[in-house]
Write a structure and sequence with these properties.
By secondary structure, the protein is an alpha/beta fold. It is 34% helix and 15% strand. The protein is built from 20 helices and 21 strands. The radius of gyration is 23 Å and the shape is globular. Keywords: Signal, Transport.
């Protein structure tokens, strides 16, 4: 589990970047590990990916939204930032005409927590506003892969199905190609202009919606800048007079000074994922991003010196005793945030949304609490080399058995839910019904307990605008988060398979599965760097070189999507 994994109690939410002082748990958008797609040999399977001119024929035309101007424009792959709540009198309209036919759609999606009743005021209001009656088939997000596999193996598939990227394994990619409709006839090129909010979704996100040579999915857009940030206790740094470290050596030196085990204070938690960023390791939880063309050779990250250097630096932190002992024992990454807010660790790495989530949580009980993200440095203390993550990681599909009207109703729903911040449609989708699901307090929308329970999940998956950050309760953090993304985006490169949804051949699908555990063993001192080198040699002989040849042919035949 990567450090940006969402806890079972709060699944990934497209509305994770929304302020509600009533709830301080930040939902991580797209935060669980995305496994490389693989599948069985069955009807509908198409290995590889679609890019270049073939993809251009499939992608929707891009028409940027001009409905609302962000306070902090997107730059260098960052999200856009909105720092203030928009009064009701200033809300714009992005869907002037109801596009739904009044039809009904069954939608299966993951849900973390207790699903609300079907006839709740929020669902009722959304159905009326969109013109589509949605019957939600919410499934337990923790075991969603099992339910998804069973449903896709059957002949009884709901009209609409949400597939998180981390569930794209086993036979599921094959089922995606076999069971879901081609949306190209409705969205490709200028056809998308019927749905202006969907036309404003970046093309890189749409590229990820191409499966089996067809545009099959409405994607959840995300910034391509790394979502893992090194977060630190700014208040405690200032109290103790610490400067933010600017190099790996300076970090280790500072960590030794800051750690006081007798006082139950450690410099950091597990920092492996920051180590990968610091040393320029090909990153991202999608294994296709682990390949990059360097000169004339296609290289996997496990073969690089940077990979070994990152593990060695992380190992030094553990060996120096500066890492919290619970991390040494390998306890769940989600506990790192609790150790951080308790003041037991001064630095941890986590999804950047924790910057708002932990601050909102702690301000209610500790007004002096302050945290921030420090800029990622390079191995020599200079500029880093960072690698772009995928611009979409959750996908929503329509059954091949759906009628033309059902597909159009689905797109009407997606267009409504993709309304940008500052619109009436956004407020309804994100907050629900005023007076029931939220109240306005000091100019800010604050969810009631009913809103917390009901306006959660569901419509997060059926359309979303271009990436944004909007925490009007903490505007300084909104601005700081976006500016951090912009600074890091300036050093971000796109590897050869950025933006592509790759279906690997089944015979090599599990080839790299053991590396994450080996990494964790090495940094904790249970294995040696030489064990990694041996594992890489074994990986190459057992299929790694064959997989390299397959990826190279894919690149030669189709080109990159960069």
């Amino acid at each position: 589990m990567t450090p940006n994994a969402a806890p079972a109690s709060s699944g990934p939410s497209r509305r994770g970047f929304l302020a509600s002082t009533a709830v301080a748990t930040a939902a991580v958008a797209g935060g669980m590990p995305l496994l490389a797609a693989c599948g069985g040999e069955q009807e509908g399977r198409k290995e590889g990916a679609t890019s270049g001119k073939e993809a251009e024929k499939l992608l929707p035309a891009f028409v940027a939204s001009s409905v609302v101007t962000p306070d902090v424009p997107a730059k260098n792959g960052s999200a856009a930032g909105f720092t203030r709540a928009i009064p009701a009198s200033e809300l714009k309209t992005s869907v002037p005409k109801k596009l739904g036919s009044g039809g009904r759609l069954k939608v299966m999606s993951p849900f973390w927590g207790t699903p609300p009743k079907a006839d709740n005021p929020y669902y009722t209001a959304m159905n009326e506003a969109v013109g589509v009656e949605v019957a939600w088939q919410n499934q337990d997000g923790v075991t969603y892969d099992q339910k998804l596999g069973a449903v896709l193996a059957s002949s009884d598939i709901p009209d609409v199905v949400v597939v998180p990227g981390w569930n794209l394994m086993g036979r599921i990619p094959s089922a995606v190609n076999a069971k879901f409709a081609d949306l190209g006839p409705y969205l490709s090129g200028d056809k998308v202009k019927k749905y202006p909010n969907l036309a404003a979704v970046p093309g890189e996100a749409w590229q990820r919606g191409i499966f089996g040579g067809q545009l099959r999915a409405v994607p959840m857009p995300a910034p391509y800048v790394t979502d893992i940030a090194p977060l630190y206790r700014k208040d405690l740094f200032e109290e103790k007079g610490y400067d933010v470290p600017r190099s790996p050596d300076a970090f280790l030196s500072w960590a030794k000074e800051a750690t006081d085990a007798k006082s139950k204070l450690w410099a950091c938690d597990d920092m492996k994922w920051t180590a990968f960023n610091v040393f320029g390791v090909l990153s991202g939880s999608d294994k296709a991003l682990w390949w990059n063309l360097e000169g004339d050779k296609l290289v996997n990250r496990v073969e690089t010196e940077q990979y070994l250097e990152a593990l060695e630096w992380a190992r030094k932190l553990y060996a120096a005793g500066v890492v919290h002992p619970d991390a040494v024992q390998g306890k769940a990454g989600g506990d790192a945030g609790n150790r951080f807010t308790a003041g037991e660790v001064l630095v941890y790495n986590q999804n950047i949304s924790d910057w708002w989530g932990k601050t909102a949580e702690q301000r209610t009980q500790n007004p002096d609490f302050e945290m921030a993200a420090f800029d990622i440095f390079g191995p020599d203390g200079g500029d880093p080399t960072l690698w772009a993550v995928q611009p979409a990681n959750i996908f929503t599909f329509v059954s091949k058995k759906a009628s033309k009207q059902q597909v159009e109703d689905f797109l009407a729903l997606c267009n409504f839910c993709a309304a940008p911040y500052g619109t009436k449609e956004f407020m309804l989708t994100a907050y629900g019904v005023e007076g029931i699901d939220y109240e306005i307090e000091d100019g800010l929308p604050v969810k009631t307990q009913q809103g917390v329970n009901e306006v959660n999940g569901a419509y997060d998956y059926t359309g979303n605008p271009a990436p944004y950050v909007a925490y009007p309760d903490l505007p300084d953090i909104t601005r700081s988060m976006v500016e951090w993304q912009q600074r890091m985006g300036a050093f971000t490169r796109k590897s050869s398979f950025f933006g592509l949804t790759v279906t690997e051949p089944n015979r090599w699908s599990n080839l790299a599965d053991d590396f994450e555990q080996l990494e964790d063993d090495v940094v904790r001192g249970r294995k040696k760097i030489s064990d990694v080198q041996q594992a890489v040699s074994d990986w190459r002989s057992k299929g790694g070189d064959g997989l390299r040849d397959w990826y190279r042919k894919l690149l030669d035949d189709n080109g990159s999507a960069k």
